[in-house]
# Entry
Amino acid sequence: MTNIAVLYLDDPLYQPDDDNFMETLIASHMTKLPTGAWVCNFCNKESKFKRNIGNHIEAIHLTSSGFSCDICGKVLKTREVLRKHKSNHRDIF
Ligand SMILES: [Zn+2]
Ligand SMILES: [Zn+2]
# Structure
């Protein structure tokens, strides 16, 4: 896979903290097949689970300046990684 398209999220409309915005953005780049599976519009990766493709698109095809942790300021690449990172904080405190 040499020419994977990537969305650059410099758009001022891009609101990483707005889950609805992100879901809509990601959903607009996946297609449901007649078999019920979901496919990534960028690279045709397929999964039975919509969430897997959503995470895939966000991790592989969305490029942003990242999501900063409001607890320690560390910048993570995706919201999924940020969520996991924050759950570590919860264990500590
Ligand atoms: Zn893909
Ligand atoms: Zn943190």
